[in-house]
Write a structure and sequence with these properties.
The protein has 310 residues and is mainly α. The chain has 16 helices and no strands. The longest helix has 26 residues.
Length: 310
C-alpha cells in the first residue's frame, strides 16, 4: 500500500535547503501573524485605558514584545498539533509543516522556546501577573482549545476563544498590576465577539473543515442555525461594549462610535441570516471582515477616548 506525498512537499524536498530569508518567513508563518496582529491591536488600548492616558512607552513596547511571543508560541503549537488536519484543508495547504519546509521537531522546539521567553520576558519587564496571564493564554489556546475542544465540540470556538481575550488582561495587568472591572468588560467583549467573527468564516470554509473532521458549527449545523447564532453573539457583543460606558466612564467619542459601528455590525449579521432563511449562501466573509473592522474601531476609540478631556 503506497502513501501519497503532496506534490508541494515533493517539490520542496527536491528544491534543496531553503534560503535564510525563506526559513525566517516560514517560522513567522508558524506564529500566525494575522491572529497575532489582531491580538496586539486590543492590548495597547487596554493599557491606555488602564493608565488613563499614555503609559510609559517602554512598558508598552515590552508588553507588545511579550504578547507577540506569547501569541506566536500558541500559534506555533497549534500548527504542530493540527498538522494532520492542515494537510486536508485547502486554506492551510501552504503552511510550513504541510509543505515540509520546517520539521515537526523544529516547530515544537520553536513553540516551547517562544512560550518560555514570553513568560520570562514579561516577568522581567512588566510584572508577575502579566507573565502568569501569558502562560495561561498559551495553555488555554493549546490545551483547552486545540487539544480538548477543537476536534470534539461544535462550541469549540466559543470556549477556546477565551485565549484570545487574554491580551487585554495582560495589557491591563502590565500597567496596574491588578485586574479591575473595565479589564473584565473588555474580556467579555472579545469573548462574545469571537464566535460572531469566526462562525461566518466556518460557513465559507465548510468543506475544508468537514474534510479535516473539525466539527465547526458551520459544518455540523445548517446556515439558518449558524446565522441565528451569529446574530445573537453580535447583539451580545455590542451590548457588552456599551457596559464599558458606565464601568470605565467612557466619553462621547466612544459612546457614539460603539453605537454606530455596533449597529453596522448587527445589520451585517441580520443580512447573513436573511440570506440563510431564503436558502442562499449570502456573504459570510463580509460579516467576517465587518467583525474585524468593528473590533479595530472599538479598540481605536477606546484609546482616543481615554486621551480626550470629554
Amino acid at each position: 500500500m503506497s502513501t501519497q506525498i503532496p506534490a508541494q512537499t515533493q517539490a520542496r524536498a527536491t528544491a534543496g535547503r531553503p534560503s535564510f530569508g525563506r526559513t525566517v518567513k516560514n517560522y513567522v508563518a508558524l506564529t500566525k501573524p494575522r491572529v497575532m496582529e489582531l491580538l496586539l491591536v486590543v492590548t495597547v488600548p487596554a493599557m491606555i485605558l488602564a493608565q488613563g492616558g499614555l503609559p510609559n512607552l517602554w512598558l508598552v513596547l515590552a508588553t507588545l514584545i511579550g504578547g507577540a511571543m506569547s501569541a506566536g508560541s500558541a500559534g506555533a503549537f497549534n500548527c504542530y498539533i493540527d498538522r494532520d488536519m492542515d494537510r486536508k484543508m485547502k486554506r492551510t495547504e501552504n503552511r510550513p509543516l504541510v509543505t515540509g519546509e520546517i520539521s515537526d521537531r523544529n516547530a515544537l522546539i520553536f513553540s516551547w522556546v517562544m512560550g518560555s521567553l514570553s513568560v520570562v520576558w514579561l516577568a522581567l519587564t512588566t510584572n508577575l501577573l502579566a507573565a502568569a496571564l501569558s502562560a495561561g493564554a498559551i495553555f488555554f489556546y493549546v490545551v483547552i482549545y486545540t487539544i480538548v475542544l477543537k476536534r470534539h465540540s461544535e462550541q469549540n470556538i466559543v470556549w477556546g476563544g477565551i485565549a484570545g481575550c487574554f491580551p487585554v488582561l495582560i495589557g491591563w495587568a502590565a500597567v496596574t498590576g491588578s485586574l479591575d472591572w473595565p479589564a473584565w468588560v473588555l474580556f467579555l467583549v472579545i469573548f462574545l465577539w469571537t464566535p460572531a467573527h469566526y462562525w461566518p468564516l466556518s460557513m465559507k470554509y465548510r468543506n475544508d473543515y468537514a474534510a479535516a473532521g473539525v466539527p465547526m458549527l458551520g459544518v455540523v449545523r445548517g446556515r439558518v442555525t449558524v446565522g441565528l447564532q451569529v446574530i445573537l453573539y453580535t447583539w451580545a457583543t455590542v451590548a457588552a461594549s456599551l457596559l464599558l460606558i458606565p464601568v470605565a466612564e467612557m466619553g462621547w467619542t466612544y459612546t457614539v462610535a460603539s453605537l454606530v459601528f455596533g449597529g453596522y455590525f448587527i445589520v451585517q449579521a441580520h443580512r447573513l441570516y436573511a440570506h440563510a432563511i431564503r436558502g442562499e449562501a449570502g456573504k459570510p466573509m463580509q460579516v467576517f471582515h465587518t467583525a474585524n473592522i468593528y473590533l479595530s474601531v472599538i479598540s481605536l476609540v477606546i484609546a482616543v477616548d481615554a486621551l480626550l478631556p470629554f
